[in-house]
Amino acid sequence: MTDIASTDDAQARETLQRLWKPGCDFLGSELAILGGAMSWVSERNLVSAISNAGGFGVIACGAMSPERLEEEIVATQALTKRPFGVNLITMHPDLDALVNVCLSHNVTHIVLAGGVPTGATIRRVRDGGARAIGFAPALALGRRLIKMGIEALIIEGSEAGGHVGPVSLNVLAQEILPHVTEVPVFVAGGLGRGDAIVSYLEQGAAGAQLGTLFAASQESIAHENFKVAFRRGNARDATVSVQLDERFPVIPVRGLANAATRHFMKHQAEMLRRFQAGDIEREAAQLEIEHFWSGALRRAVVEGDVDNGSLMAGQSVGMVKEIKPVADITSMLVEQAVAALKRREGRVHPPK
Fold it and tell me: Which keywords label this protein (predicted)?
């Protein structure tokens, strides 16, 4: 019986390796698991821990200057000899300089996020010897990016934390995975278990990107208050910011509801009242709304102010039950994936 069990386990692990081999080969990692790029969180400690655990860490450049990014890359390389990537925001005013910093320090993969990258930027990345990864919120855009030279796609559902689109990963996967086979496609949004990852691998995904589980890991530099909020949170607590009036657009951001989210609603209502009363111009009111969250993520992540800060989290936050080391998280995901494959085999080919 033990021999049969061990054989089943070995076969399931071989199947998992075969399913995400395209992702592993593309990333140069043992596991096709990317760390989501989270501002103030995805820095040297967490990124190196994910790569050292067999996954693929990604530095969140965010609003960093080229000099600050260089410092973070060098510090990360001192903590891991394994490959990792850098996530760059395409709207950053110093994008070209940031790309050059990555290339000069031999960063293997560059994720171009926050907008549609230009063909020139993609060529600059590839000509410099790095792999170019882009986000595809729709099939048409995915095809366009591939024609422009993007070498891998990430499709992120609305279940994710932070800035999100309107479509769930479940639907995006059905729309995109059957039709994009030229490049690896990584799935993201609401993923917190290995069996869920397997389900997308079987649909054609090359791997998965996770953020929320890693944000609450031991190696994450996020404040303990931030991690405790994640551990206590449920899926329904991770809500998307609400827009009160279409004349004043609000970028949808998913995070744990707190005093700040309630205050934001009142702030919008006050700006709307002042605008309708003629006390403030429309543009000024829009700026007041947009500036409400300025520095809010840092307040929560770094300072631990979980009442007045921004608690960006995906709906997978309900699966954060304890604060674990990154290596334990990746091992858990693999074991869950293997167990799922063994269960599937038992259902498809039941013992006679």
Answer: Flavoprotein, FMN, Oxidoreductase
Cβ count near 137 (within 10 Å): 18
Is residue 70 domain-shared with residue 126, that is, in the same domain? Answer: yes
Could you tell me if 15 and 156 lie in one domain?
yes
Q: Report in angstroms the alpha-carbon separations of 96 from 114, 225, 282.
A: 15, 37, 34
What secondary structure letter does DSSP report for 179?
Answer: T
On whether both 310 and 173 belong to a single domain, the answer is no
With tokens 């001192």, the residue in question is: 78
297: enclosing H helix or E strand: helix 296-301
To the nearest 5 percent, what fractions of the chain are helix, strand and coil? 50, 15, 40
pLDDT digits (tens, 9 = 90+) for 210-256: 999 999 999 999 999 999 999 999 999 999 999 999 999 998 999 99
Domain-embedded: residue 128: yes
Burial profile 15-46: b = 16 or more Cβ within 10 angstroms, e = fewer: bbeebbebbbebbebbbbbbbbbbbbbbbbbb
- Of 14, 56, 54, residue with least CA distance to 35: 56
Q: Which residues contact 278 (CB under 8 A, 6 or more apart)?
A: none
Examine the domain organization and report whether 62 and 143 are in the same domain: yes
Does pLDDT of 279 surpass 70? Answer: yes
Q: Into how many domains does the chain fold?
A: 2
- Give residue for tokens 């397997």: 198
Digit-coded pLDDT (tens) for 33-90: 999 999 999 999 999 999 999 999 999 999 999 999 999 999 999 999 999 999 999 9
Element (H, E) at 153: strand 152-156
User: What are the phi and psi torsion angles at 251 (to 5°)?
Assistant: -65, 125
pTM (2 d.p.): 0.94
Is residue 11 exposed (0-12), middle (13-18) or buried (19+ Cβ within 10 Å)?
middle
What are the CA-CA distances from residue 39 to residues 59, 100, 172, 205, 267 (Å)? 9, 21, 25, 26, 24
Q: Is 129 left (phi over 0), alpha (psi -120 to 50) or beta?
A: left
Q: From the centroid of its chain, how far is CA 88? A: 13
